[in-house]
Amino acid sequence: MDFTKHAMTRGQQRGIPREVIEMILRYGEPARKGDGMVEYRIKNRDRSIIIGDLKKVISFFERSEKKAVLVADDTGEVVTAYTCR
Questions:
Q1: Residue 44 φ then ψ, to 5°
Q2: Is 82 helix (H, G, I), strand (E, B) or coil?
Q3: Which domain range does residue 59 map to?
């Protein structure tokens, strides 16, 4: 995603790092604001759902250690999954 110089400056001035902006864009709910603009915002009711989903991702990531997936080069099909030594 491209950022205008204005967005980068205002983000710095307001203590909103790029990573937070990217998270809001990824998980936030869009709302049309007119003049071709869309506002993204993470609402309180969605916060716990998002945190729960992210905890699941972390859990799956931790469980993926020493695991591998074998994929057929020509078809892209998953052939098998296994634990590495």
A1: -55, -40
A2: strand
A3: 5-83
**Side-chain-side CA neighbours of residue 76 (13 Å):** 0
11, 17, 41, 42, 81 from 58: Cα distances, Å? 28, 22, 23, 20, 20
Per-residue pLDDT reduced to its tens digit, 6-46: 999 999 999 999 999 999 999 999 999 999 999 999 998 88
CA dist., res. 41 & res. 28, Å (int): 5
Where does residue 24 fall: left (phi above 0), alpha (psi -120 to 50 degrees), or beta otherwise?
alpha
User: By three-state DSSP, how is residue 69 classified?
Assistant: strand
Give the SS3 label for residue 55: helix
| Residue pair 11/18 in contact by the 8 Å Cβ criterion | yes
pTM for the whole structure: 0.64
Domain count, the chain: 1
